[in-house]
């Protein structure tokens, strides 16, 4: 992706000429309204791993690295990076010299140090959990910092591009304090936050000193619309220029609207069923395996995603490094019945469980949950589907209090296996629901392996073993959906991000 832009001379004149020629209005050229499913839980982007809100965070804040559409991590706020030793414990970062925060202050290596020192000092911030091996950040000069890790960290560059790795403004944060920062946050992203109504609306304004050039659309409004049908209605009526995460069935209908473009596309996330190992019923191997074999994944893709969502058998997207192409867990209802019988359950003597799912947070999430529940009922598992918010799910999973299986879309914009199975199965992490401490040593060994071939091979073996034991049930490679005005240029990315800084109105 090209993040370097040149401002177009004569913008106002061009917009007026566009009106005369029957193009978009001057108001349209200045403003974009997006019907968006969720609000951000906090304006500290280092505090939470919240995939659904990353598009908003990426508009306001910025990170040292960025993952492109090919899932390759490259410099963003930094010009370059390099390991200073062969052990993978000292990483030099060279910061760009043209990065400014929204208050006009220039970013320096001190801001990088402040961001990571704060995360290490508070421990509760998600940035510390995502990069727990950071032991120190040394400021060499205004544009150079050296990160020291407590052990080899081969994926450091990828984590610097992923969830929570946003650089905060040291001087502003220390001047106003944390509470005021959360009320009036500033970052170094392409847009400034100018108005915020919790749970309702986020209003952003283009930042004219953004290092990548001022965005072509001056004003972006994220209208928080949790209900997917309401998002569809908003874009269809013209109240919104764009709606995201809409039901796939609506995409087919909206494609026929002469004023709209609509699209379904796969991206680097996984629909998974998370098993809480601390619930006794899910400690039974036969129960978990039966649950896995009873799911017709291709049927789910066909019914809800126009066959775009690819069935997966391991905790990796198709073609990513951790994928195991020659391994699969086939749909086999008869075998599932036999496996469940070994645990003492059947249609006549059903097992009763709960299945939690969000509703309209991800395309067709609740529909998928109900379909899975129906598949399980056919082998002798009576499943009660309960709707849950992302916030409530995070609260329960982080405190090991999930009382049932959770349908979730696991974000991994890097495609790296460490951020799939290495995180999903790490029993020490708060968002992991499979708490098998025996896995900790294996995951630790892979996390420090600097030989890339050995590291990937190790994760493939772990992925296969995880599926054979049904510690977490991979379902489908996630899909994203979007509908927008035909007058709007909207590139889509394998990362699934909504990036208004990359959009423009057609002339």
From TrEMBL:
Q: Which residues cross the membrane?
A: none
| MF annotations from Gene Ontology | peptide transmembrane transporter activity
Question: What's one Pfam family the UniProt record gives for this protein?
Answer: SBP_bac_5
The signal peptide stretch is: 1-26
Key words of the record: Signal
Q: Which InterPro entries match?
A: Peptide/Ni-bd, SBP_5, SBP_5_dom
Q: Which domain of life is it from?
A: Bacteria
Cellular component per GO? Answer: ATP-binding cassette (ABC) transporter complex; outer membrane-bounded periplasmic space
Q: Which segments constitute the Solute-binding protein family domain?
A: 75-424
- Give the GO terms filed under biological process for this record: peptide transport
The UniProt similarity line reads: Belongs to the bacterial solute-binding protein 5 family.
Name assigned to this protein: ABC transporter substrate-binding protein
Q: Which organism is it from?
A: Pusillimonas minor
């Amino acid at each position: 992706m090209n993040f370097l832009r040149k401002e177009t001379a004569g913008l106002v004149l061009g917009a007026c000429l566009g009106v005369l020629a029957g193009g978009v209005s001057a108001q349209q050229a200045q403003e974009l309204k997006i019907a968006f499913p969720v609000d951000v839980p906090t304006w500290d982007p280092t505090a939470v791993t919240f995939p659904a809100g990353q598009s908003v965070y990426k508009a306001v804040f910025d990170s040292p690295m960025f993952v492109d559409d090919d899932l390759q991590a490259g410099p963003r706020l930094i010009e370059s990076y390099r390991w200073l030793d062969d052990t993978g414990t000292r990483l030099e970062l060279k910061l760009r010299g043209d990065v400014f925060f929204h208050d006009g202050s220039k970013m320096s290596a001190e801001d990088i140090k402040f961001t990571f020192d704060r995360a290490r000092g508070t421990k509760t911030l998600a940035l510390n959990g995502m990069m727990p091996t950071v032991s120190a950040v040394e400021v060499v000069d205004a544009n150079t910092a050296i990160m020291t890790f407590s052990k080899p960290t081969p994926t450091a560059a990828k984590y610097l591009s992923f969830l929570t790795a946003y650089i905060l403004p040291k001087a502003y944060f220390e001047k106003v304090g944390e509470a005021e920062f959360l009320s009036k946050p500033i970052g170094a992203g392409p847009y400034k936050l100018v108005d915020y109504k919790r749970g309702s609306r986020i209003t952003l304004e283009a930042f004219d000193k953004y290092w990548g050039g001022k965005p072509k659309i001056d004003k972006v409004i994220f209208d928080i619309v949790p209900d997917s049908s309401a998002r569809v209605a908003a874009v269809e009526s013209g109240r919104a220029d764009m709606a995201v995460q809409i039901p796939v069935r609506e995409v087919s209908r909206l494609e026929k609207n002469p004023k709209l473009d609509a699209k379904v596309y796969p991206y680097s996330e996984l629909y998974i069923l998370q098993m809480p190992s601390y619930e006794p019923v899910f400690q039974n191997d036969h129960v978990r395996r039966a649950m896995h074999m009873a799911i017709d994944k291709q049927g789910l893709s066909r019914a809800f995603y126009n066959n775009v969502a690819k069935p997966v058998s391991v905790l990796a997207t198709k073609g990513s490094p951790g994928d195991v192409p020659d391994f699969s867990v086939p749909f086999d209802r008869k075998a599932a019945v036999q496996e469940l019988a070994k645990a003492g359950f059947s249609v006549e003597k059903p097992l009763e469980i709960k299945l939690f799912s969000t509703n309209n947070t991800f395309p067709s999430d609740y529909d998928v949950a109900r379909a899975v529940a129906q598949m399980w009922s056919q082998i002798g598992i009576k499943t009660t589907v309960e709707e849950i918010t992302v916030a409530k799910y995070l609260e329960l999973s982080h405190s090991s209090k999930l009382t049932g299986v959770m349908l979730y879309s696991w974000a991994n914009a890097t495609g790296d296996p460490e951020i799939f199975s290495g995180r999903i199965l790490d029993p020490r992490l708060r968002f992991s629901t499979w708490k098998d401490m025996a896995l900790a040593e294996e995951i630790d060994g892979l996390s420090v392996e600097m030989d890339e071939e050995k590291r990937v091979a190790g994760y493939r073996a772990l992925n296969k073993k995880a599926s054979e034991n049904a510690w977490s049930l991979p379902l489908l490679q996630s899909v994203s959906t979007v509908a927008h005005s035909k007058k709007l240029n909207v590139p889509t990315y394998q990362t699934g991000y909504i990036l208004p800084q990359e959009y423009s109105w057609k002339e």
